[in-house]
């Protein structure tokens, strides 16, 4: 018999709550077997959870993660999945680069305003103490 995992065991391994795992199950991303009330996760479920966690870390939506996982089920060679994953990575990188530019611009503006406010405060304190 192949190795199986309990929900608490996977939660510890992936540093998530059991509630998070049940949420992914509710969304159809995981489908453990049941033995009474106990959930029994297979190595396949463990790999799927690893892919979910990686996708979340990279900022993908659960719907995008589902697409990638479902592609593996359709094409076990992983060619289709890898092509789609590359496309999603490129899209995500482009979005992050736009955000990075927006953040840099905002930080520059904040620095400029901070300098102006500091200069005004300094001037007002000089005037007040005179």
Beta-strand residue fraction: under 5%
Order of helices and strands: HHEEHHH
Give the neighbour order of strands across the main sheet: 1-2
Mean of pLDDT: 93
Counting H and I runs of at least 4 residues, what is the number of helices? Answer: 5
Major sheet summary line: 2 strands, antiparallel
Class from secondary-structure proportions: mainly alpha
Number of strands: 2
Topology:
Layout: H1 7-14, H2 18-26, E1 33-35, E2 38-40, H3 43-57, H4 62-74, H5 79-129
Helix pairs in contact: 3-4, 4-5
How does this structure look, described?
By secondary structure, the chain is mostly helical. Helix content is 74%, strand content 5%. It contains five helices and two strands. The chain has helices spanning 7-14, 18-26, 43-57, 62-74, 79-129; strands spanning 33-35, 38-40. Helix 3 (43-57) packs across helix 4 (62-74) and helix 4 packs antiparallel against helix 5 (79-129).
